Here is the input.
Amino acid sequence: MLSFSRDRSHDPSQRRVLVVLASLFLVVASLALVTVPSGQPAYGASAALSVSPSTYVGGQRLTWTGNVGAPGVRSLALQFHMGRPGDRWTTVAGFDARTRADGSFSFSYPAPGMFNIRYRVKAGSHVSPSRLFLAKTQDLTLRVAGQRDNNTGEPGLVPADRPFDIVVDTTPDNIFRSPSSQGLPVFAGRTLTLQRRVDGDTWRAVARTEVGDDGLGRFSGLTEQAGVAVFRVREEDYRQDGNEIGWTQSFPLWVYVGSDAWDRYEQQRREALATASSPPRDSAAFGSGAPTPTASERYGWYPLYWDFAWEHGQSLTGGPARGTRPRGHWVDYVDGAGRVSKQNGQLTLDSKRFYGAGPGDFGSTRATLTGNAAAQGRWEARMRIRGAYETGGRAYGVRAELVPERTSGRACSSHTIEIASISPFSRRVRFGARSAKYRWSGAATASATPLHSAYAVAVEVSKSHLTWFLDGKPVGSVSDPAAFPGVPMTLRLTLTGAGQQEMNQVSLVSDWQRGFPITSGRQTVSRDKLKRHPATGC
Here is the structure.
């Protein structure tokens, strides 16, 4: 298996290009996502808002200080604005603080996990100026000690049955990935767990250490027999001193052990380089613009069962942010070079560490919700694609789907409901269902590609019909009883590869994922009926 060519990172011109691209990516995203909220009130002379520290990750304890611009003890409301066309100031639920007699305030509240979001403090008709928040994204890199910094996912090469060390950097210089992970704060004493892959579902804990004052951790005295071992490191929850930072994990590190494994790696590297795809003609940047309509709002599905919004410091095993049935968590599956993580307030599936064209994209990556399945109900999510720096090779299957919870770890089960299948450079959104004997397939056309628009995709599963939705509109229905799963189903997001074959680089980004009861609002049947066909393949 291949991660990346070792020759690429030695090319100074290539590094400069990557730095420029990464910087342009952040600028374009900021311009696309941020607008200054309109209708700002007139501030009092003493109105102010500041936070410290100035560099933070989602969930980190921040101290908020300032003044609402008018004297008097008043209850405070904390409000945020996403900065997109049509957004409004929204009050944070459950927040409780008061001003002092002079109108000043000081309180602690966890940092938001999103980029380009504004907060302000409000007391009656008096408000502080708003402040733009740009959270850093947690990240960590691995390398075998004595080998160079591993910012691209390059494998380690070690002798068989000889001790070696793995070094972890929790504040890496991310010129090969994203400026949002540059300049990360150090959390000295935070626990690091080294895991060795057993299979795509299972990682076995090997050792533990702590982050040092320099942001590094070290696992010493590791030994492996000849062959290939795959490791990753989990930076565990950090909840001391008022912080609420959830765990995050590294991309996999391949360690080739012994001369035979080294030779195999070199052969695979040459083969992957020979079949690497070229960059696409379309821009790899993205923008979300105004939020697209949702079926839940149009048809009154609220109150919701659960809502994963990823707004602060949540990890995959953290529960939903809100809902009448707020339980469940996410389980990842990785049998290749990918990772499931939280970035910019979104659940993200990456095919490899490096954002760019070139080898290293292989295997499948999935995120499956467990612990909150239902046989009937509604499921809704936002989906978009980030990056897509390659074309011409094999494309990943990028999907949101429902699968039986008891078989949710499998890549293919006997009864599935495909909520949406998307591709970077196409506006075509596919959907459907399949049983052991039959399949039902449909398609709809979105207003833009998923590189430039975030789709709101949903499915309604009732006793009498299945209905699919795209950006709030019904686009297909099935009333055939053979299509109904009849068992509790759960949501799964997937990047489906083709074993160890090289694929086109891609990242699936999902802003939020929600579940609703079937009993609220209006049930809907589309005029477009999906036809039944014999099932073939998987």
User: Anything to note?
Assistant: The chain has three helices and 34 strands. The first strand starts at residue 48 and ends at 52. The longest helix spans residues 12-33.
